[in-house]
């Protein structure tokens, strides 16, 4: 067993009040009504809503490591309204009405995470301070404005999306070079690992079985198998996101793309007076290669940038602080807040998120076989997993609701290309994004670089 297994997956894990003790693995052959593979938010919320609706339903969650080990315990803690791929659904007149309902359901999911966690006694540092996106160059600001106008054009109100000029933006956050930007109240900052671990403990207290250290090797109708046991269940649900490629037959279904994060030491009041972020709004600029940050519950800045795709759908669970990726993340943080140059970076980590070929998440459930699968949030899953969990629970209960009619239910995405095309493509698209960002930072339009990037990767 590698020593890595005992290291902390993220800053969020390493600052939990109590060190995580892995639960017992699955041993022997057991019968349940519903078996869920993966104890990230998707699996945990699905179990949560099933248990709420049908307390007598026998549910097992089977996790390869510990609850929240994947993206759910590593993310930026933006519990945000954004749904990957919503732009294309809204743009299609035939889909618009349901897409608008889906967007409103995402607004509600942000609140539901707060409601459900608080009703379950889970303190995950939830603070609904909204989200600020800055335009730090003219072209970036224009793209941001176009997206804002589009959303307002669909009928979303000032209360949903607000345009801020440079002064109004600076009242909320002093991001270097911000020429203006948007504010939406539909985002809460959370402590991700507290939510994942809290949900797992709550589920256990409600009689849901949570098996950890139990990698599932195979999933079939009515059956999942691990090295030391198996579960027979009428419904078997795969909630394995970026890790899905490790399961038989799924190598090209979801691409594991990494994202990298750093956290500073706790910052004094004087620094917060300087940079703003009162009320803990999350923040980003609008570069194509993605930034995201939050003021944590213990007054640090946690900040992330998009990382790499590794050849052959490789997944890295641990990174050395000396990894060059963190130099980029740190340099980007200093671009936004140059006054933090002397601040100590105390934590560095990364994780794999899951991306489908069309960057659209999916919820699949076949009522005949009882097999289900959910994923592909493309780095926007903290709130969406809650909506997915509620929806999948309804599908398992064979119900038809507004949620089960949303476009991601049954949405097919085609497979990713075989290697080396997958790796070459991801390298090329990434490079286009970097070039486009560099051109825009000089105040020029990104032209072809930007268009190619936008055609192949959206966020
Ligand atoms: C660094 C980073 C930053 C991010 N920031 C944000 C953000 O700020 N806001 C946002 O909305 N989204 C963000 N995301 C994305 C978000 O975290 C995910 O979309 C969300 O957590 C997905 O939850 P999940 O349960 O589907 O997947 P995961 O949390 O990845 O859970 C999958 C679980 O399945 C387990 N598993 C996999 N294979 C098996 C198997 N064979 N047997 C048993 N168990 C298995 C894994 O160990 C894992 O625990 C970020 C992601 C990363 C990596």
Low-confidence stretches: none
**Overall pLDDT, averaged?**
96
Question: What compounds are bound to the protein?
Answer: flavin-adenine dinucleotide
> What's the CATH class of the domain at 3-75 and 192-254 and 358-405, please?
Alpha Beta
Descriptive account of the structure:
With 459 residues, this protein is an alpha/beta fold. Among the domains are: 184 residues, FAD/NAD(P)-binding domain; 41 residues. Strands 1, 2, 8, 9, 10, 11, 17 and 18 form an 8-stranded mixed β-sheet that branches. A 4-stranded mixed β-sheet has the order 5-6-4-13, with helices on both faces. A 4-stranded antiparallel β-sheet has the order 14-15-12-16. The mean pLDDT is 96. Flavin-adenine dinucleotide binds next to α2, β3, β12 and β16.
Supply database-style keywords:
459 residues; alpha/beta; eight-stranded mixed β-sheet; binds flavin-adenine dinucleotide; FAD/NAD(P)-binding domain; globular; four-stranded mixed β-sheet; 23% strand; 12 helices; single chain
């Amino acid at each position: 067993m590698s020593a890595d297994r005992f290291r902390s997956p993220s800053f969020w894990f390493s600052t939990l009040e109590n060190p995580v003790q892995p639960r017992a693995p699955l041993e022997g052959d057991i019968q349940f009504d519903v078996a869920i593979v993966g104890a990230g938010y998707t699996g945990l919320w699905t179990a949560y809503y099933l248990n709420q609706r049908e307390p007598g339903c026998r549910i097992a969650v089977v996790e390869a490591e510990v609850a929240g080990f994947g993206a759910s315990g590593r993310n930026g803690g933006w519990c945000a309204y954004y749904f990957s791929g919503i732009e294309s659904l809204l743009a299609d007149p035939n889909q618009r009405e349901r897409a608008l309902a889906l967007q409103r359901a995402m607004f509600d999911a942000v609140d539901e995470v707060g409601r459900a966690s608080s009703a379950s006694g889970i303190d995950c540092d939830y603070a609904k301070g909204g989200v600020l996106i800055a335009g730090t160059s003219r072209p970036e600001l224009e793209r941001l404005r176009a997206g804002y106008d589009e959303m307002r054009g669909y009928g979303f109100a000032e209360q949903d999306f607000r345009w801020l000029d440079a002064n109004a933006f600076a009242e909320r956050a002093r991001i270097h070079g911000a020429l203006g930007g948007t504010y939406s109240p539909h985002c809460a900052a959370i402590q991700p690992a507290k939510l994942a671990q809290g949900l797992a403990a709550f589920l256990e207290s409600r009689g849901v079985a949570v098996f950890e250290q139990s990698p599932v090797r195979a999933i079939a109708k009515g059956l999942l198998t691990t090295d030391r046991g198996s579960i027979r269940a009428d419904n078997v649900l795969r909630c394995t996101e970026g890790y899905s490629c490790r399961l038989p037959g799924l190598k090209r279904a979801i691409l594991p793309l990494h994202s990298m994060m750093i956290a500073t030491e706790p910052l004094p009041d004087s620094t917060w007076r300087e940079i703003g972020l009162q009320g803990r709004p999350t923040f980003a600029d609008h570069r194509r290669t993605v930034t995201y940050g939050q003021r944590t519950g213990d007054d640090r800045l946690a900040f992330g940038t998009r990382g790499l795709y590794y050849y052959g759908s490789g997944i890295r669970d641990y990174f050395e602080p000396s990894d060059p990726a963190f130099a980029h993340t740190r340099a980007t943080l200093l671009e936004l807040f140059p006054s933090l140059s002397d601040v100590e970076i105390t934590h560095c980590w990364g994780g794999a998120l899951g991306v489908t070929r069309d960057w659209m998440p999916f919820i699949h459930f076949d009522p005949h076989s009882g097999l289900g699968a959910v994923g592909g949030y493309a780095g926007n899953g903290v709130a969406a997993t809650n909506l997915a969990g509620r929806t999948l629970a309804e599908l398992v209960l064979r119900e038809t609701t507004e949620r089960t009619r949303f476009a991601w239910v049954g949405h097919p995405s085609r497979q990713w290309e075989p290697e080396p095309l997958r790796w070459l493509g991801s390298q090329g698209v990434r490079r286009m994004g970097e070039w486009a960002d560099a051109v825009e930072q000089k105040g020029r339009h990104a032209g072809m670089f930007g268009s190619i990037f936008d055609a192949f990767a959206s966020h």
